[in-house]
Amino acid sequence: MAIHYLRHLQALPIVVGDPGTGLIWAATLQRTGTNPAPYSVADRAGHPGYVCTGGRAYLLKPIDETALRRSVEKFKEMQRLYGAARLELNLNALLATLHATPAPQADYRDRFLLKQGTRLVPVEVTEIAYFFTRERLTFLRTWDGWDLLMEHTLDELTEKLNPKHFFRANRQFILHNKAIGRGHLHFNGRLKLDLNPAADEEVFISRDRAGDFRAWLGE
């Protein structure tokens, strides 16, 4: 039944989208016999973001607007050349759909389960003012001023914490934005920070990181 259907089609369907997560739109391919012709809406050569495989053409995510426009123009060209069944493609609607698709959310930690002696202590991220290192050990400090030992390094924590709320100030500190009291211009373009609760040592932002720090605070 399927072979009979293919032999009587003037054009074969072509899927343009993400092979792993879903379709974006459908177009057509001219056939020769029972196989699709080697001509496709999306041509890999010279066009990053395209791939043709198994008689289907895919636009790979992230979708580039220029690539999408080129694909639509090729589709329309095929309609003119081969007289394929009319399929309306609204480019503006396609672009609006792509732009409206929310970016995937990173899986940031909401809490940590800390081992304190023989006890396991859950700590919500909202309870943490900052993280710091002391003698090669990592600690967190709560808003109440309690210090708790952690098994994670600061490098590991940087990947687990939401950058909207936490900033890697230097090799010794990761700070919550609400823990920052005042900043002071310091020698050689550095910034000196007052923290709340207060840190046991002076906290500096290097000159190279000062611009990123100010942008993070919303300057």
What would you note in describing this structure?
The protein is α+β, with helices and mostly antiparallel strands. Helix content is 24%, strand content 36%. The chain has 5 helices and 15 strands. The strands form 5 sheets. A 5-stranded antiparallel sheet has the order 10-9-8-12-11, covered by helices on one side. Strand 8 and strand 9 form a beta hairpin. The longest helix has 18 residues. The N terminus is likely disordered.
**Termini Cα gap:** 66 Å
Rg is 28 Å
Order of SSEs, N→C? HEEEEEHHEEEEEHEEEEEH
Assign the structural class, choosing from mainly alpha, mainly beta, alpha/beta, alpha+beta, or little secondary structure: alpha+beta
Overall pLDDT confidence: 74
The largest sheet is: 5 strands, antiparallel
Strand content range: 35-45%
Number of helices: 5
Shape: elongated
Number-wise, the strands total 15
**Residue share in helices?**
10-25%
